[in-house]
Amino acid sequence: MGQALDRMKYGFLALMAALLAIGIAVSAPQPAFAQATVGADVPDEAAPREVPAGETDAVDAAGAYEPMAPTDGKGMPTAFEEDALKSMHFQDQYTQDGAYALGMHDYILLPVITIISLFVLALLLFVIVRFRRGANPDPSQTTHNTLIEVIWTIVPVVILVIIAVPSITLLARQYETPPEEAVTIKAVGYQWYWGYEYPDHDVEVISNMLSDSDAIANGEPAKLAVDNRMVVPVGVPLRIQTTAADVIHSFAVPSLWFKQDAVPGRLNERMLIIEEPGVYYGQCSELCGARHGFMPIAVEALPMAQFEAWVASQGGTMPGAEPAEAEATDEAGADEGAAEDEAEEAAAA
């Protein structure tokens, strides 16, 4: 009887502890970005933000922001059915680094690889035919050939030097430091969606994947379209910073030749300049959990005037806008003060 009472007592204490833990979890403050439901088929589309009355004039002045429609074959993968050869190649590039890297692949690496492979294949076939047992019953006992050893040492060195020069150049270009005036965008990886912060513009957006039906209805590729894109200006330096809130993610957009890991507790940074307006699609490229394949990236590059309209539609401000308004207010106050002084002098006279 005593043991039964003890078990009931311990069970009651365990139940109270569980209820206390649940209460603490419910009352704990939620993170800045809402976590996507793990078991859902697709994340829910974010509700449209209401634009306050004070922002309406700014949006009208710059022109209302309208999401850009994607261009078929630009910034997105090509289906095998559409173009079999292009589907097996790199996407067209829209950055200088991407064009340089693609040219290096097409005009240096691919020819060198092809020539070496064909040469080794031809050499192998020659050895099989020339030195088979039937044609060469008494094999040579030669163990060294100075000329051949010199050739097969020098030729690979020359090839590696040819490859090394553009490779080191590309590596240096990818580590170029963004200038001070670069537009800063901080991409934060979550399980399993992206958050984009614009510290210079006081804007934050959450980006979740659209359902296949919604993506196709918008004329976008399924599994790559999102409800809120990462909107950036075109033709200007961008400071892309990446980090993560939970596990390692990777921010990658193939058509922009951009791939940068997002590591918790670490801030990686790289410069990006997009040469043409458009919508460019990518995905998380680091295995980050069960829904790794469902956190796409959509970068919308706009002319500066349209980017300013997007910032205004999000309730943000362009750098220098507030100081300019404050300066105008100060000047207006100074003019009013001067007018009052003149009126007092006139009255005294």
Provide a compact summary of the structure.
The protein has 349 residues and is an alpha+beta fold. It is 42% helix and 17% strand.
Can you put this structure into words, describing what you see?
By secondary structure, the protein is an alpha+beta fold. Among the domains are: 90-131 and 149-174, no CATH class; 183-318, Immunoglobulin-like (Sandwich). The chain is 42% helix and 17% strand. The chain has helices at 2-27, 53-62, 84-87, 96-130, 146-174, 212-217, 304-313, 321-348, and strands spanning 183-190, 193-198, 203-207, 230-233, 238-244, 249-253, 258-262, 268-272, 278-284, 296-302. A 5-stranded mixed β-sheet has the order 3-2-1-5-8, with no helix packed on it. Strands 4-10-9-6-7 form a 5-stranded mixed β-sheet. Helix 2 (53-62) packs antiparallel against helix 7 and helix 4 packs antiparallel against helix 5 (146-174). The radius of gyration is 31 Å and the shape is elongated. 23% of the residues are buried.
Descriptive key words:
5-stranded mixed sheet; disordered N terminus; single chain; Immunoglobulin-like; 8 helices; 17% strand; 349 residues; elongated; alpha+beta
Largest sheet: 5 strands, mixed
User: Gap between N and C termini, in Å?
Assistant: 109 Å
- Helix tally? 8
Structural class by SSE content = alpha+beta
Strand residue percentage: 15-25%
User: N-to-C SSE series?
Assistant: HHHHHEEEHEEEEEEEHH
The unreliable regions are 1-5, 20-62
Give the integer mean of the pLDDT values. Answer: 82
CATH superfamily of the domain at 183-318: Cupredoxins -  blue copper proteins
The outline comes out as elongated
Structure summary, number of beta strands: 10
Task: Indicate the CATH architecture of the domain at 183-318.
Answer: Sandwich
CATH topology of the domain at 183-318: Immunoglobulin-like
Helical content, roughly? 40-55%
